Amino acid sequence: MQVKAQGLFNAAKWVEAEFGQPALRDVLRACSPAVRERYTSAIVINWHPMEELVEFLEVTERMLGRGDGRLAELIGAAGARENLRGAMARAALYLANPEFMMKRVASLWSQFNDEGSMEMTKFLPDEMSIEVKGVSGPHWLHCCTITGWAAEVAAHFGWRTPTAKHPRCRAKGDTRCIWEIRGTLPEEPGSKRNSRV
User: Using alpha carbons only, how large is the chain's radius of gyration in Å?
Assistant: First the structure.
């Protein structure tokens, strides 16, 4: 599977912001020459093997985290913030309901990944599910970035205090890759609870 280099750059930017330039330098030095070359020579729209992003995540987890995927989740959330900022995304928050926007964002999967698809399989006022299908070689750390991404996207489009979990993961032996996101939609003016489904 190929992914856009933007994911690698977002991950490196997050490491530098959270841990400093020396930490990023150490992580890159511990990566393979292929990852270092990608970081120094690629542009955000270039495709590269997902394994290079996963390697960067593995080294980051090993050197700066606990190896449990938490840093990969935070990197995924940071990537969502980078990808969703701008006037267009802010305007969309007011022009469309969260269900529509989540479906739209999920449909953009192919702009950043050359295999598979992301689909929203359930949407309720306090819960939704997404599924990634058709990825030939899933990796659990890549899935962790999607966990962080999903919670951040839900927050961006109006959910209060969203949490995301990945209870079924093909990289860990399940037959499907499913994420469950929970939170609450903001109340609409004049109503005590948003009842939109």
Answer: 17
